Amino acid sequence: MDDDCWQRILRRMPEVEEAAGPPLAVAFIGSEAYAAKRGQAWLWWPGSRARAAGPVAFDGRYPDDWGLLLVMNDTAIEKVGAGGTAVMAHHARLLDIKAFVLRQRDELDGGGVLEFIEDLELATPKH
Questions:
Q1: What's the DSSP call for residue 114?
Q2: pLDDT tens column, 33-69
Q3: Distance (Å, rounded) from C-alpha 57 to C-alpha 47?
Q4: Strands across the sheet with 97-101, in order?
Q5: Which among 6, 9, 73, 108 is least surrounded, fewest beta carbons within 10 Å?
Q6: By C-alpha distance, which of 53, 86, 52, 58 is closest to 71?
Q7: CB 27 within 8 A of CB 116
């Protein structure tokens, strides 16, 4: 996928509150780059207005400041690019988007990522 498509997806991410703790990134990556363990990942920082969304090199490792990895096939990339977050939960259920939670619940909550995970219906809220 081209850079414009990933930028369109990142622009569609919801506004969220500033993180209470150190912000964590949601990393988006295409399924081919994930399988090859090399390529480009795109980061979105839901808990930080100061950190800009954008591309980073991916080498199969997950940095400490990544909270969630979303591996998206071409169908999901196209649909999320057109429909935004409203279609993400559906595509996660179809496994067009595979989600890997990389941190503990408290870290995800403090880093601003937990609310997004719950919105995607990847986890249920703790009552």
A1: H
A2: 999 999 999 999 998 888 888 999 999 999 999 999 9
A3: 21
A4: 54-58, 39-44, 25-30, 66-72, 97-101
A5: 73
A6: 58
A7: no
Q: Is the dihedral of CA 65, 39, 11, 95 positive or negative?
A: negative
Instruction: Tell me which residue of 13, 14, 21, 20 sits closest to 42, measured CA to CA.
Output: 13
Q: Is 66 within 8 Å of 44 (Cβ atoms)?
A: no
Residue type, 64: D
- Cβ neighbours of residue 106 under 8 Å, at least 6 residues apart? none
* Short-list 74, 3, 5, CA closest to 34: 74
Q: Which two tokens stand for residue 11?
A: 């622009």
Distance CA 16, CA 18 (A): 7
H or E, element range at 13: none
Give the SS3 label for residue 85: helix
| Number of Cβ atoms within 10 Å of the Cβ of 87 | 17
The total number of residues written for the chain in this structure: 127
Tokens of 121: 């219906």
Tokens of 94: 């179809």
Contact criterion met (CB below 8 Å) for 31 and 40: no
